[in-house]
């Protein structure tokens, strides 16, 4: 399936009249988002020192994805850059201005993109 064809337009919470159009992420983009998150974790672990860093890395590995934050395994910026295809703002969508979204909107949009990806894949596989 071509994931670029699976799109959804959503109203942005607490922004009357504002919307965002998202798309399903490809397997390659999901891999990039996971790799970017792991890189960030390892950089933080290195900066904090071995013992504390090892505990953080282990805690991240032990997290159950079904019960945890759906974004725990993914780099939010990578998810947003791959998943936002349009919005109601005057500025057109670019990698640079995706970074200008406030934290609440960033997290909401990233969760919606991951949910669309997971739900579409589950439906396709009949799970």
What does this structure look like?
By secondary structure, the protein is mainly alpha-helical. It has one domain. It is 55% helix and 11% strand. The chain is built from five helices and three strands; from the N terminus they run E-E-H-H-H-E-H-H. The protein has helices spanning 27-48, 50-62, 76-83, 95-98, 103-125; strands at 7-11, 19-23, 84-87. A three-stranded antiparallel sheet has the order 1-2-3. Helix 1 (27-48) runs antiparallel to helix 2, helix 1 (27-48) runs antiparallel to helix 3 and helix 3 (76-83) packs across helix 5.
**How many DSSP-defined strands?**
3
Q: What is the helix tally? A: 5
Which parts are unreliable, with pLDDT below 50 for 5 consecutive residues or more?
A: none
Structural class: mainly alpha
User: Order of strands across the biggest sheet?
Assistant: 1-2-3
Share of helical residues: 55-70%
Calculate Rg over CA atoms: 16 Å
- Give the end-to-end Cα distance, rounded to a whole number of Å: 17 Å
Please indicate the count of domains.
Answer: 1
Instruction: Based on Cα principal axes, name the global outline.
Output: globular
The succession of helices and strands, N to C, reads EEHHHEHH
% residues in beta strands: 5-15%
Overall pLDDT metric: 85
Profile the largest sheet.
3 strands, antiparallel
């Amino acid at each position: 399936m071509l994931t670029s064809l699976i799109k959804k337009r959503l109203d942005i919470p607490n922004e009357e009249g504002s919307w965002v159009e998202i798309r399903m992420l490809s397997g390659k983009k999901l891999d990039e988002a996971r790799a970017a998150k792991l890189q960030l974790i390892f950089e933080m672990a290195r900066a904090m020192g071995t013992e504390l860093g090892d505990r953080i890395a282990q805690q991240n590995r032990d997290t159950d994805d079904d019960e945890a934050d759906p974004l725990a395994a993914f780099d939010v910026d990578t998810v947003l850059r791959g998943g936002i295809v349009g919005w109601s703002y005057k500025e057109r969508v670019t990698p640079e201005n995706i970074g200008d979204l406030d934290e609440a909107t960033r997290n909401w949009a990233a969760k919606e993109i991951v949910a669309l990806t997971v739900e579409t894949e589950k439906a396709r596989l009949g799970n």
